Amino acid sequence: MVNNNAEPQNYRIGLATDDAAVTLRNHLAEILRNDQRVAEVVDFGVPDADDHTPYPVPVIRAAEAVRDGRLDRAIVLGGTGLGEAICANKVRGIRAAVATDPFSLERSVLSNNCQVLALGERVVGLPLAARLVTDWLGYTFDPQSPSAAKVAVITEYEKTGRLDWPRRPEHGSR
Q1: Residue 94 banded pLDDT, cuts 50, 70, 90
Q2: Which of 84, 90, 113, 174 has the greatest number of beta carbons closer than 10 A?
Q3: Domain-embedded: residue 169
Q4: Bridge-partner residues for 125, per DSSP?
């Protein structure tokens, strides 16, 4: 559901980027800092395009800050966002998704409770990225939604490493 609350959310947002998305990071940082729903923006990224720190370093730092509760959400940026999403998903408790369109973005939060958005500077232009981030701030996961049970399966698997799902004959178990 879209949070149409007039009150600010006071989100603490992390940004992480490598040298492939410095322009996008700078653009989004300004948008976030001017959004009334955002209380704080923490930049984990490289200072400029001449810094070739491997993307896992800033991405893991941002994802860990979300996991540890120091941040509410993070945006991880690279050339495509794919490696960044994979990397963020390696941090226990984090759900990250690449979104390049409004519907996927919406479902990443509403159906999957993703706390980390991955975007690629070489894939989405600055205007679309700005729209996606602005829309993303308006979505909140409803823990009473039908999707909550699915997210719980993911969370339990992550904790235990086991998928304890009952087989049902109507699903064709053999």
Answers
A1: very high
A2: 84
A3: no
A4: none
3 state SS for 70-102: CCCEEEEEECCCHHHHHHHHCCCCCCEEECCCH
Average pLDDT over residues 130-153: 94
Q: How far is CA 42 from CA 70, 93, 107, 124, 155, in A?
A: 10, 20, 25, 22, 26
Nearest Cα to 12, choosing from 92, 66, 93? Answer: 66
Q: What is the CA radius of gyration of the chain?
A: 17
Maximum C-alpha span of the chain: 58
Residue 169 has pLDDT above 60, yes or no: no
Please, what is the end-to-end C-alpha distance for the chain in angstroms?
Answer: 39
Token match 């998903």: residue? 89
The Cα 50–Cα 48 span in angstroms is 5
Across the chain, mean pLDDT equals 91
CATH at residue 129: 3.40.1400.10
Span 71-87, pLDDT tens digits: 999 999 999 999 999 99
Any domain includes 172: no
C-alpha closest to that of 13 among 111, 35, 120, 3 = 35
